[in-house]
Amino acid sequence: MAYLATFYWGWLLASALLGLAMGWISVVQHGEGVSKITKRWLAALAVVLVAAALSRIVPGRFGYWLDLGLIMFALYLVGCAIGSWLRDWVVSRSAPAP
Amino acid sequence: MQGLFRWSSKWWPGVIPLVIFWAIAAWTSTEPLEADLAQRSTTALKDTVLDKRRIVVAGRDVTFAADAFSEDGRLSAVASVEAVPGVRLVNDETRLVPEAKPFVWSAERDVVRVTLGGSSPLPSSKAKLIEAARAGLGGVEVADRMNLSRGAPQRFDSAALLLLDQIGKLKDGKITLTDNKVALSGMARELGGREAIAAALKNLPEGFSVAANDVKAPPYIFQAYKDPVAVTLTLTGYVPDNNVHAALVAAAARKFFSEKVVDNLKASVGAPSGFAAAVVPALGALSRLSTGTLVVTDREVKLSGDALYEAAAGQIRAGLGKDFPQGWQFKPEISVKPAAAPVDSTVCQQLFAELLGKARIRFESGKAEIVADSAGLLDRLTETALRCPNANIEVAGHTDTDGEEAANQALSEKRAQAVTDYLVRAGLPASRFMPIGYGSAQPVAGNDSDEGKAQNRRIDFVVRQ
After folding, report:
1. B203, B208, B289, B443: which sits with the fewest CB atoms below 10 Å from its CB?
2. Hey, are the CB atoms on A67 and B60 less than 8 Å from each other?
3. Contact residues, chain B, for A81 at CB < 8 Å
């Protein structure tokens, strides 16, 4: 993992920044998000993919691509979380107390 | 926390550019990553002795195939690749180098090259053997057909190197090492080479032994070539020792009275018994030919060339083999030189004088027996006499003044008669010759010195119309 991080830090940084931006937007965005049920399915899919990656059952290049995708996705999620939290903090500070 | 959960339902649109990023990252990074991992894996195996190593990287998975020389070496090689950072999985396709049983190594020499075959225990010993073969054989092509196998006997390298040394002493042949038994066949390059190889094999490392040594000695060859154009007799090949060498050259000088003897003989061991006893009469027969080659190979004497006249050819064909020691073979290939054009009596006389000026007919001391060394000269006199069929010839015997005059007179007559007999045996009519003895009455030099006496002991040919 450390090897991949040093090899592709650019792509990983890009994923994290993308996540940060998306998180920043999502706090004030109007409209419906994905439903709870869809979220569960997506979470289940993510678990399956992570399990597949950890168990190394996907061979060769597909295995590498899966690892790469999951790492980028993980950093994206981290970026989203930080971005959302930051935006929420900024919004709550600037808004007048209820 | 609840907020995070709520916001997360709106994070999905970012996944679309993320997927695009992912696709680009995958597209651009896969091949450099694979190349990097392949290079790191190769570096990790740098110090491990392996054969047929093959590393294929797909994604982060390394397919590693190689032949290892021990189980420990194999496991440590796999572990080294597994330890390379970034490698996810190692598909282990390594195996042990096959075990050769029996472990056979061979070196074969033919005319143009030395072929190393069979098994060698490690790449390093293989390289060492090829290197040694190139260095030791100087310029001979070395072909490597060795494969790598386990199961070599201990001290294989030193045994094989010693055997490689021996292949240089072979003209052709094969040396095979089967486990720790050595078998040799072929022919030594030089006389004495077989003995040198046998001596060297005593230094084989402990545990090795010679199962069969069928190396043959090269034939013992002696050659003499009589060249009528250059007027030389060229001697080449081997003689047993310096005494025989000197004796042969002296005999050649006596028998070939007009030719220059070119001596290229080398002394060497391994002569067949009775060598000198066979070669000296064979040289005598060669001296009777106008042009010819004498080849003595071991105990076979081959004489080819042109005799000066028919009777001489018959005498050589039938007579020479009888002079040989037991076990020797004679293979004559004698033809007859075309007869020279007839000449008149004056020219005949000149030719006789010319021949007898170069050499004298020699007899046993105090006797009327012609020595064998004079056969060449007599054949030339006979040939000349055949060229002037109408001339009558006086064969004149002379002696020096030593001894009683009556005895000298008788001896000169007998000697003249002996020469005449020789000519008649050669097929000339007896009526053409008049043997006359003059004793010491007609000296051509002073009888006060050995040299002068030697010149006075002579046979002259005088043409009478």
Report:
1. B203
2. yes
3. 4, 8
**Chain B partners within 8 Å of A88 (Cβ):** 3, 7
Q: Is B66 helix (H, G, I), strand (E, B) or coil?
A: strand
Q: For B401-426, what is each residue's pLDDT tens digit?
A: 888 888 999 999 999 999 999 999 98
- Is the pLDDT assigned to residue A79 strictly greater than 90? yes
3 state SS for chain A: CHHHHHHCHHHHHHHHHHHHHHHHHHHHCCCCCCCHHHHHHHHHHHHHHHHHHHHCCCCHHHHHHHHHHHHHHHHHHHHHHHHHHHHHHHHHHHCCCC
Structure tokens at B143: 């072909």
Q: Which candidate from A7, A15, A60 shows the least CB-CB separation from B21?
A: A15
Q: Which residues contact B361 (CB under 8 A, 6 or more apart)?
A: B370, B374, B377, B378, B381, B419, B458, B459
Q: Count the Cβ atoms, other than its own, within 10 Å of residue A71.
A: 20
Q: What pTM was computed for the model? A: 0.62
Which domains can be identified in chain B, with CATH numbers?
17-96 (3.30.1340), 104-216 (3.40.1520.20), 221-336 (3.40.1520.20), 345-464 (3.30.1330.60)
Q: Would you call A39 and B9 a contact, using CB atoms and an 8 Å cutoff? A: yes
Asked if omega into B102 is within 30° of 0 (cis), the reply is yes
